[in-house]
Amino acid sequence: MSRKETGRSWMVLFASFMLMFMETGIVKSLGVLLPDIREQFSTQTWVVGFAISLTPGFGAIVSLFSGAVSKVVEPRVTIILCAFLSSVGLFAATCATTLGSIVTALVITGFCTGPTPVAAAAISTYFDDHYNIAITVFSCGMSVGMIVMPLLTQFLQNLYGWRGGILLLSGISFHSVVCGALIKPSKCEYSPVSKSSENETNKSNNKFQWWSSIFEKYLDASLFSNPSFLAILSIDAGTGFCTTGWLIYVVPHALELGFTPYKASIVATAGGIANLLGNSLYPFLATFLSNKALLYISICFIAVSYLLDPVASSYPSYIGLILCAIAFGVGTGLKSNTIYAMFNDAIDEEQLINAVGMGCAMYGLMSVISGFVCGWLYDRSGSYAISFLVLSVVAVVTIIPQCVVDIQHLRKSEFSLSAQPSLF
Asked: Are 5 and 128 in contact (CB under 8 A)?
């Protein structure tokens, strides 16, 4: 076992798993409640979908600055604060009487995604030899959240209504505070920025230089000169659009086709089980396939799942919807692990929190756009078929920057080989 991997390491891994479980579970639960919230406030689908997408959207802003905050205070302080505010936001949603008030509550709930880059970076500082297994367990939190939370939310909704269901979800979410307390800083994590260095920076007479130094110091602006990072950032943005569209609208989509609420929730659960399968397969597949190969495979699964959904919906075929959900789940499961592994390979450990934070920020920004676009297309067409076709196109487009980077690396390697002197 590596020098880093101790009993504390596995405790940190468990806490990180639960944080990912809460993050995905909350967004998925809100998607299950979308029809009731829409009916309660007598509004359109795109309005509620956009409001729900603000949860990961605002979380994107939190994720972007979580790395900077973690350079000043302990990472677990960041996690505890975000988890507490997220639970408060869910509690406030139960008291909402207007559309504006529930939107505000869902924005506050977006703090649930803030701890993600901090937790992901914590795993990298605690694990060496078993990093692939650790990041798989971490990503499985998303899978378990997709499996458990839709059915649990549907059950709570039937018993207590959507307000009572969100109230109980608020209590469940509050356990993230305890998880944050378990993530004790390791010796490899960031040390707080010294006041002396801040004072030296403040002495600068040029305000532009001062702001540039702050941006570089706290947000690692040099990341934007790394083509591999920019390609991964593009993939995070595209998959954020695709994944959030599925999380929010897959249950309403099944309900619109005439299936019962429990059958609709089972479609989401099937996607969660497949996501768990994709996550579990990653350590095995990573032994003989590169992360880039696994990335291309995962994007193909995601794109095909959306492309075939209109075919399954035309009958409508419940088995077809289940198969599309399975393809989507396997693709997103592989993608989650692959993205974290690629960040870990391409980025220095000191910059990892900010790199993952920027990835989460792009993911969340595109989540907001997805919630609006998919709902708007449904309101205009009366069907989710066009929305899912758009999601398929986005999934394919998002991989183009990575293709460009790979082609450039291939050309450089070929040029270096041709430049070597021949032995004959």
From this structure: yes
Residue 1 buriedness (CB in 10 A; 0-12 / 13-18 / 19+): exposed
62, 113 Cβ separation under 8 angstroms: yes
Residues 6 or more apart whose CB falls under 8 angstroms from that of 345 comprise 291
Digit-coded pLDDT (tens) for 134-180 = 888 888 888 888 788 888 888 888 899 889 989 998 998 888 888 88
Which residue in this structure is represented by tokens 């297309």? 377
By the 8 A CB rule, do 24 and 141 touch?
yes
Relative orientation angle of helices 352-381 and 45-70, to the nearest 10 degrees = 180
Distance of alpha carbon 382 from its chain centroid, rounded? 28
- Each residue of 390-412: pLDDT tens digit? 988 998 898 898 888 888 878 87
Query: Which tokens belong to 223?
Result: 């990341």
Distance separating alpha carbons of residues 298 and 293, to the nearest angstrom = 9
pLDDT computed for residue 326 by the predictor: 93
Q: What is the DSSP string of 336-392?
A: HHHHHHHHHHHS-GGGHHHHHHHHHHHHHHHHHHHHHHHHHHHHHHSSSHHHHHHHH
Per-residue pLDDT, averaged over 2-31, amounts to: 79
- Angle at which helices 261-285 and 131-173 pack, to 10 degrees? 150
Residues 7-185+225-413, CATH architecture: Up-down Bundle (1.20)
Contact 56, 386 (CB under 8 A): no
CB–CB of 233/227 below 8 Å?
Answer: no
Is 94 in contact with 404 (CB distance < 8 Å)? no
CA dist 189 and 26 (Å) reads 28
Could you tell me if 55 and 363 are in contact, meaning their C-beta atoms sit under 8 angstroms apart?
no
Domain parsing of the chain, residue ranges: 7-185+225-413
